[in-house]
Amino acid sequence: MRMTSTFIKPMHPEGRRFVAIFAVVTLGLWLLSEFLGLVGLGLTVWCYYFFRDPERVTPRRDNLIVSPADGIVSIIEPAIPPAELGMPAEPLTRVSVFMSVFDCHVNRLPIAGEVTGIAYHPGQFLNASLDKASDLNERNSLRIRVADGRELAVVQIAGLVARRIVCFIEPGARLETGERFGLIRFGSRLDVYLPEGTEPLVTVGQTMISGETVLAELSAPQPQT
């Protein structure tokens, strides 16, 4: 039973029609050639694997920020959050997680809070690992307010192959850490803009697990004077 659960994961509903399309094409290819049919079968299995949606064990400490995506930390640098979110135009620490076509692409909220804003911005489809992808590529941005009033931003960025960003929630939603909020089809990136004064606990090149790997820890709020 454990061996089965290791290799067979639940599939997100967003993937069902894509797997069905791959399967139909595979059937047609099999009628033409056994070799082509095997190629199609491999691609169908990959498509299912791309849309896998495994359960994750999320840390329960309130001040932890977890990774919103599976993948590799590609960039850590100061940057201004997307203008369409209406946040102050001041640099915050941005942590970028690059997702290859072999990573799980279901995105999860990095910390419990209220989603006070969601903004979609059309754009290009450059390689998501490039720094300029944050500004030039198609993106969908979330503004999140945590219990003590501090804010952070999470940005879904389309990549070279990705052509569809999906967001499941609406402004005003209150979610817990690790809850699913969206996905991006076929290769992309997630940017997290940490609140001022928050230092990342990860490094460039580190492998991340969505909803599980701790990205940063909020410091205690400064007292009002």
Give your account of this protein's structure:
- The structure is a single chain.
- The protein is an alpha+beta fold.
- It has two domains: about 1-50; about 65-215, Glucose Permease (Domain IIA) (Distorted Sandwich).
- The protein has helices at about 1-5, 15-30, 35-50, 135, and strands spanning about 65, 70-80, 90-100, 105-110, 115-120, 140-145, 150-160, 165, 175, 180-185, 190-195, 205-210, 215.
- The strands form three sheets. Strands 9-5-6-7-11-3-2-12 form an eight-stranded antiparallel β-sheet, with no helix packed on it. Strands 4-10-8 form a three-stranded antiparallel β-sheet, with no helix packed on it. A two-stranded antiparallel sheet has the order 1-13.
- It is elongated, with a radius of gyration of 19 Å.
- The model has no long low-confidence stretch (mean pLDDT about 85).
